[in-house]
Design goal:
By secondary structure, the chain is α/β, with parallel strands linked by helices. Helices cover 37% and strands 17% of the residues. The protein is built from 15 helices and eleven strands. Bound molecules: adenosine-5'-triphosphate and magnesium ion.
Length: 405
């Protein structure tokens, strides 16, 4: 029997964490103009909001209401026509600011001939992550998004949902402090949606800030602390989700099923204060997502095979801020018999939730490396993929303004 539950309002994560403002937007306006400079579309119209550290902030609105334009303005990909934006206290175009942001665009832009591991390594390289970190993170992320089994397939062959998953992994390779996800669950199956939501919650627990644009209201409801609702580029409603959705004129009491006589006694007492037609008694139902996940879980236990994405693993260890898992006795033996690469002073402590990205990177660099299993030999790259890799590396070298390594 489930325990009786009264709907209780607990403080949102944003209220519980400190009130550092990560993104500040004032009077933000974006007018798209045609070739002759004539206004074509007023995409964002005089918008004000703040997003605080550790908060999951939702941008909602119907198609064409200005969500993606707002996201691109926050990222510095578009210039505002009017207004002011600050991200981590700087202009969105500030280079150091960009390093702290992870972005999942509305459409995936991927090099179609790279496989998923190469894709993640490529983006890790853009952030100048050390090789070992890149490898480790790519592995954890592929596991997390359920693509480990297909990591040698070109991303161009991926289904829409699989592309979304690799896009999500790519957005997290730099362990960003601010994660901006534009329609992250679009094209994902319900398992993928649940995993993305769990990931968002895990990121928020680590003090990361998440801005999420979506018109899938159920997803938003499950994860967002605060939302804005756009229509025609303007904010129509804004506030903590619990406050926006609460109905202060009604209460709900949930208990295990009660004997008929008890119910009658309770209703009799209630009817002394409230008209009989205002009282409703019903049985709570589980939502479709929970039911669906349960059905799939049972099917999985029956070990059905699939050529698509598998269900992802737990949130990548480095994103949860966890140290490496404790070595098994076999690994300890291996480590003892292997020549030590460098003296190790002490086991790394688990990072505190408020650690900075720099500390995390530093720790990752200084963390003793457990001996990894020998990597599988890379398959001979096809000429097209080789050419794509070359092209990607050239772009990278151009972007970084330095010769290729
Ligand atoms: N590059 C562009 N040039 C001209 N108009 C644009 C451009 N990008 C967006 N717009 C217009 O700005 C408005 C807002 O578009 P935006 O992409 O921000 O909407 P959205 O809320 O993200 O919609 P959706 O839910 O469909 O993704 C729309 O009218 C759109 O046509
Ligand atoms: Mg959009």
């Amino acid at each position: 029997m489930s325990p009786a539950a009264l709907t209780a309002v607990s403080p949102t994560r944003s209220a519980a964490s400190n009130n550092d403002v990560v993104v500040s937007v004032r009077g933000l306006t974006k007018v798209f103009k045609d070739f002759w400079g004539r206004p074509k579309a007023l995409a964002v119209d005089n918008v004000d909001f703040d997003v605080r550290r550790g908060e999951v902030f939702g941008l909602l609105g119907p198609n064409g209401s200005g969500k993606s334009t707002t996201v691109k303005l926050i990222l510095g990909l578009l210039h505002p026509t009017k207004g002011f934006i600050e991200v981590f206290g700087h202009s969105p175009r500030h280079v150091a600011t960009k390093e702290r942001i992870g972005y999942l665009p509305e459409e995936s832009y991927l090099y179609r001939y790279l496989n998923s591991r190469e894709t993640l390594e490529f983006f890790g390289n853009l952030f100048e992550l050390p090789k070992d970190d890149r490898r480790k993170r790519a592995e954890q992320l592929l596991e997390m998004v359920g693509l480990s089994q297909v990591h040698l397939r070109s991303v161009g062959e991926f289904s829409k949902g699989m592309q979304r998953r690799i896009g999500l992994a790519q957005a997290l390779i730099n362990d960003p402090d601010l994660v901006i996800l534009d329609e992250p669950t679009s094209g994902l199956d319900p398992i993928g949606c649940r995993e993305v939501k769990d990931l968002i919650l895990a990121l928020a627990r680590r003090g990361k800030t998440v801005i999420l644009s979506s018109h899938l209201l159920a997803d938003v409801e499950d994860v967002c602390d605060r939302v804005v609702i756009y229509y025609g580029g303007r904010i129509q409603a804004m506030g903590p989700l619990r406050e926006l959705l609460a109905n202060p004129d009604a209460i709900q009491i949930t208990t295990p099923a009660l004997p008929r006589e008890t119910m009658e006694r309770v209703l009799q007492i209630i009817r002394q204060d409230v008209a009989a037609d205002k009282v409703r008694v019903d049985t709570p139902t589980q939502n479709l997502e929970t039911y669906f996940l349960d059905v799939v879980q049972k099917a999985r236990q029956a070990a059905a095979e699939t050529s698509g994405a598998t269900s992802g693993a737990r949130v990548a260890a480095y994103l949860r801020g966890e140290a490496e898992p404790a070595p098994t006795p076999d690994r300890i033996l291996e480590r003892l018999t292997a020549p030590p690469p460098k003296p190790v002073e002490a086991a790394p402590p688990a990072p505190a939730p408020a650690e900075t990205a720099a500390q995390a990177k530093l720790e990752a660099l200084t963390r003793p490396e457990p001996p990894a299993p020998a990597p599988a030999p890379a398959p001979a790259a096809e000429p097209a993929r080789q050419a794509e890799l070359e092209k990607a590396n050239e772009k990278l070298a151009a972007l970084l303004g330095k010769p290729r390594s």
